[in-house]
Amino acid sequence: MTGAGVTAARPVVELGDLALDEGAHLLIKRALAAADEIWVRGTAASLAIDLPAWCRAQGHRLAERGGGFVIGRGPDRWTGAERAGTIAAPVERPPARWGLAARGALVEAGARELDLPLAERAVVWADEAARLYAQAAAAQWDPATAIPWPSPGEPAGHPEEVEDAVVQVMTYLIENETAALLVPTRFLGKLHPQFREVMQLLAIQAADEARHIEVFTRRAQLRRGVLGLSTAGGQASLATLFDEPDFAIASFLLSVLGEGSFLALLWFLRDHAPDRCTRELARLAAQDEARHVAFGLAHLSRHAALDPRLRDRLAAAIERRHAALAHTAGLNAEVFDALILLAAGSWEPAALRRGHAAVVALHREMDDGRRQRLARLGFAPEVAAALSALHTRNFM
Amino acid sequence: MRDLILGAVAYDAKVVPIWEGFRAYFAAHGLAFDFVLYSNYERQVEAHLRGEIDVAWNSPLAWIATARTPERRAEAIAMRDTDRDLTSVVLVRAEGPIHQVTDLRGKRIGVGATDSPQATLIPLCALAEAGVEGEVVRHDVLVGKHGDHIGGERDAVKALLAGAVDAACVIDGNRLAFARDGLFGPGALRAVLQTERYDHCNFTVLDGPELTGGAAGAPPAIARFRELLLAMSYDDPGVRPLLDLEGLKAWCPGRTTGYAVLERAVDRFGMRA
Questions:
Q1: Are residues B99 and B77 in the same domain?
Q2: B66 inside domain
Q3: pLDDT per residue over B176-219, tens digit each?
Q4: Distance of residue B243 Cα from the nearest chain A Cα, in angstroms
Q5: Are B99 and B192 in the same domain?
Q6: pTM
């Protein structure tokens, strides 16, 4: 019989004709895990060559005895190993020496430390992360099939200049979604993998943005060979997000305020875009953005509850950003006008009046949303109103 | 006190991180240590004899070259646990016409590099002592590095599998390593000869009082070097990666009883076969 038997004195491992180059070492390792010394017997022709060589390499002691080999367990590389927390939940401050090990794995001592500065549960964690990740994974949509792209050559059904307005809005969306992809990704590379669910969520968030960039680009190209305008002011606004080194502040400015405002913009497009394809892609993108906002709110609420000074830092960040952008133009006039024309759908004065009113309502809705979210983070209503008013005129 | 200088042969790029790691370990324990890398053992032995290095990390052949130098007294002060009690094997194709070692008389014997103790000198000596001489087919990978590079042995086994030679000589551990790499299937090759046991590398010093005999009067830096080596524990996660890189679990005191078969091989063939 091949396998591990046990005698009172020392366990006997019968290898049969299984050779070391056929996996016999597994039986030996298994037996040595349970006993300091074992007796190994086997009939493989190469056993007398391979077993001493294998034991030497492993640091095990070996002696020939009674037609077999007695092996004494050598040094164990798992001395001093530690669990990287538990599989169920992250620890408060995972050490850098756990590196990329799976949460809950037994980590060998002496591994190289990795530079993972985002390693504080209070700063990055939200209990909702696992649920939001699962929701995101289930809600991924295929741009090729989820959106009713028009057939080649199908007439637009709206005036040429309204199409230009759509292209301008798409150009603006692509630029902003690029920021929304890159900003969390930069933090993702610094996040300790102990916070697995947050890591997964940020990754799928980046995949969401990649998909949005794809569909906005494809929509813009439907009937045009060139894209619209990108302004210095818009880029200056996004640069302040891109350069923000603090995870909480970046998350607050991007997810809670920026993507929160974008939600309203995407709903606006869902309701007012001139064609079904644009309305549908805006609806799908808004679903994704809502999850991003939810995670930002969840981990910042938790963070603020643990660190009462966080709200002051967040408020200061809004004021600082406002000051930094004071000299810029804010939302470019082309985007503003494009939104009016897009919502109007034609050059008829009555239609333009409706479009203009819709854009004014959009601004109001964005402001309402920001104030509500600030209130959820514990800001008093009057403070929330003041801070919302300081938010970048570029929306994101 | 000036740095203790160790000489080692750069048989692979990993030699640099190994000795940088040891340098840091010794520095952390108050021993000023540095190393010089040579491209071959002959140059290292010459430098050692000229006094340019204090300790040589020597192949067994370099040890013999040093130990046989007239009017010099060489001592092996420490060695790896994995360098003790090695054997080499002469492999043939299991389904081939060679059934016993004497069947190899006059046949093509695939060996490693011409100066490899384990894959050339020792097995050829064992074959000769068994009355077998044949056509020696060398697989010279990095001559001067005394077979430290595994490539020559691998090439010898490939030649055996391809039918270009009738036997291949390798160190015991490489038989298993090549089989696990999938170079040949289980049972495809058979050993017709296993050599007597022998030892491999050691740290060699010259002309001092015997360290292994108690170290009285030995240069303090060399005594400290040996003491720190022997104190390295595999249980210590700080030094374990170094020991893993260098391929050992523990440093042992040096011994010279394991070089008898290589001495006979050198007497028979010289430093190269």
A1: no
A2: yes
A3: 999 999 999 988 999 999 999 999 999 999 987 766 554 455 67
A4: 11
A5: yes
A6: 0.79
Whole-complex ipTM: 0.91
Residue B270 within any structural domain of the chain:
no
> CB B173 to CB A109 under 8 A?
no
Q: In terms of domains, do B175 and B213 share one?
A: no
B78 with B130, same domain: the answer is no
Helix extents (H) in A41-194: 47-58, 121-124, 129-138, 143-146, 160-188
Does B142 share its domain with B182?
yes
Q: With beta carbons less than 8 A apart as the criterion, state whether B199 and B258 touch.
A: yes
> If 0-12 CB within 10 Å is exposed, 13-18 middle and 19+ buried, where does residue B149 land?
middle
Q: Domain containing B79 — which CATH number?
A: 3.40.190.10
What chain B residue is nearest to A56 in terms of C-alpha separation? B82
Q: Which two tokens stand for residue B260?
A: 């008898």
Beta carbons of B175 and A19 less than 8 Å apart = no
Is A195:A102 a contact under the CB 8 Å cutoff? no
A43 contact residues in B (CB cutoff 8 A): none
pLDDT band at A1 (very low <50, low <70, confident <90, very high): very low
Residue B271 falls within a domain, yes or no? no
